[in-house]
């Protein structure tokens, strides 16, 4: 059963400035995300923007927003086939468990100006 759906869109140009600030990246992104984003210099801002959108979409799907969740506790990564997945740790994992959701489905898309993410929670 679906327990929540969230979607968010982020302007890529907003993230271009974030790439220049290591402390900001470390505050909002898991180390695995930072490594992945910086490995693709050509579209790093798009990769960053879509991950930020996914975090916001998770908050909407939970129905709680991102209050009481450290964004570093959410890691949006790609599996060996390139499929995006969301791994939760610490505060994010605790909130997910309290929600009753057991599975996270995620879809990401980005192009030059915008990045969008959708999260569906299932129990």
Question: Which helices and strands, and how do they pair?
Answer:
Layout: E1 2-11, H1 12-18, H2 22-28, H3 31-39, H4 44-62, E2 74-78, E3 84-88, H5 90-99, E4 103-110, E5 114-122
Antiparallel strand pairs: 1-5, 2-3, 4-5
Task: Characterise the protein shown here.
With 123 residues, the chain is an alpha+beta fold. It has one domain: 4'-phosphopantetheinyl transferase domain (Ribosomal Protein L22, Chain A), CATH 3.90.470.20. It is built from 5 helices and 5 strands. The strands form 2 sheets. Strands 1-5-4 form a 3-stranded antiparallel beta sheet. β4 and β5 (114-122) form a beta hairpin. α1 (12-18) packs across α4 (44-62) and α3 runs antiparallel to α4. It is globular, with a radius of gyration of 14 Å. The model has no long low-confidence stretch (mean pLDDT 94).
């Amino acid at each position: 059963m679906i327990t929540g759906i969230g979607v968010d869109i982020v302007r890529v140009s907003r993230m271009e400035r974030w790439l220049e600030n290591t402390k900001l990246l470390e505050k909002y992104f898991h180390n695995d995300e930072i490594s992945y984003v910086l490995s693709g210099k050509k579209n790093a801002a798009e990769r960053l923007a879509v991950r930020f959108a996914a975090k916001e979409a998770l908050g909407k799907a939970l129905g709680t927003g991102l209050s009481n969740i450290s964004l570093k506790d959410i890691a949006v990564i790609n599996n060996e086939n390139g499929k995006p997945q969301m791994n939760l740790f610490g505060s994010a994992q605790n909130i997910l468990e309290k929600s009753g959701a057991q599975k996270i489905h995620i879809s990401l898309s980005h192009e030059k100006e915008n990045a969008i993410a959708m999260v569906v929670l299932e129990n």
